[in-house]
Amino acid sequence: MNELNLNLDLNSLSEFLITNFPGALDFLHRDIDVFRHNGVFINEVRELIKGRDVIVYGSGPTLNYFDPKIITSEKTLQMGVNSQIINEKLKLDFFFAGDYVPLKKNNITPEVLIEKKNAGMKICLTRKYGVNENDGKTHKTHIPDSFVNRLPDDINILYYTNSFRQALQRHYSRLLFSSCSIGQVPLQISMFCGARRIYLVGFDQGGSFYADGRIRISYENQDSESPVDVEADSHKKKFVSDEKAIRAFTQVREMKKKLGYRSEIISVNPVNMKGIFDRDVYTKEYADSKGLIGDEYKILTTI
Questions:
Q1: What average pLDDT does the segment 115-134 reach?
Q2: Beta carbons within 10 angstroms of residue 275's beta carbon
Q3: Would you call 125 helix, strand, or coil by DSSP?
């Protein structure tokens, strides 16, 4: 094959791609967005996170058995998801949300996010890679453009994919991976940025209630008229989304191992997440309430 020397300006390059690779420009635009938002954000916070302890808060009821004072210091970074932004017991440095449902149900408006941002909190909203709000196929939990457009330009927009394979193909530390739990995003970011230890708190992935006492109804059943089993034990009550989230956390563990990241990931009061990460620990309050005894139940001690 003869070597071709092409001298193309952007217009002719665009015409070439459109003619020969239908849809290529859409994918290129998405990849540029991922790099521009995720890559720039990760580089921006890398030195802030590197070498420090991070706590990531979910909304599971075991959160109620955790006192941040146990392991926090001035150098500890605290990250929360969804309703934890209005949890007065927590002092968050980072907030992450990807689903509109918990924002709407907790009356977390753009004004609330702006107020928190002005107070020094980094606000991060995640959007699914490749989703076009106008294509008619957007999932009902997607944060709408009408919400995002009411926020200032310096709010952090991050892109994720539900596909572990796609995250691998587009480089883990750029296209984030998340499936049925937004908590996987701050976990990955902390890991990519070299956090010393990452504590996962309130990620029960099962049970009938949130930490604030609200009845937990899965997205796949939220329109169903069938009654919710509010008495079910957390170890037994799991939705399809819980199983998917647990599998995704397991894949994040494989990501950590494959890429050689050294952050220690610690599950605090694990329910259905026991044994997934480097260490499982329990607060004394939780262990006492559940009657947990034995060497396998390591009690979390103060720093």
A1: 89
A2: 9
A3: strand
